[in-house]
TrEMBL record:
NCBIfam families: dapB. InterPro entries: DapB_C, DapB_N, DapB_N_CS, DHDPR_bac, NAD(P)-bd_dom_sf. (S)-2,3,4,5-tetrahydrodipicolinate binds at residues 152, 161-162. This is 4-hydroxy-tetrahydrodipicolinate reductase. Belongs to the DapB family. It comes from Eisenbergiella massiliensis. NAD(+) binds at residues 8-13, 34, 93-95, 117-120. The lineage of its organism: Bacteria, Bacillati, Bacillota, Clostridia, Lachnospirales. Its EC number is 1.17.1.8. It comes from the Bacteria. GO terms for biological process: diaminopimelate biosynthetic process; lysine biosynthetic process via diaminopimelate. The active site is at 151 (proton donor/acceptor), 155 (proton donor). Catalyzes the conversion of 4-hydroxy-tetrahydrodipicolinate (HTPA) to tetrahydrodipicolinate.
Amino acid sequence: MVKILMHGCNGHMGQVITRLVEAEADMEIIAGVDVSDHISNAYPVYKSLEDYRQACGQDGSLLADVAIDFSSAAAVDKLLDYCEAQLMPSVLCTTGLSPEQLERVKALSRKTAVLKSANMSLGINLLLKLLKEAAGVLAPAGFDIEIVEKHHNQKVDAPSGTALALADSINEEFNNEYTYVYDRSTRRQKRDKKEIGLSAVRGGTIVGDHDVIFAGEDEVITFSHTAYSKNVFAKGAVQAAKFLKGKPAGLYDMSDVIEGV
């Protein structure tokens, strides 16, 4: 049985994961943490990690094997503090983390198991692999690379963590020789060959749409991924939590889950 602490349990993704775990015979959410208490859950919910820590001291049944985080970048620091103090493995799904927070995640992974992925879907993580192969062929042949991502009008970070992960996957193929251009409105110059353009669209209820465009002379190749529901991300998080239980300290991602490392 995998016992889960759901950090951000009353947010949309936290509730999707709650419903998915209810259908799993070998998993259980034993506690949640959320500043909001507008939802009634089958498990106890605490306003803060400190409240949860105190409850664990009173009742050992609330101790979790792994934390799943779908909260906000502002709330992640306290979770990192808690996981470091308790050496608790964690699946970090929140996007928009600062460079300083990402360094903290790396430091935490030297003490306990951490799975951090910009996107939890199986399709996106397969696409990350395919893009490396495509870029290795197309970029040397003179193809320009542009990434366009579309999300709902409530998303606060741009470009998306997934778009950056797609760009990073391509850039790794070329020893990070490419620079990223996020906004061309202030640029009055021709496109450089060693750049990847990233554009963000925000509107409506778009769950997640990513196009990676390889534009060459007289032909264009586009890799597209569309998420029609947030369930794809929640399912990945649940599988990641199963994978992470019992793993040694280290920084993992969804490719490890796919390969069953």
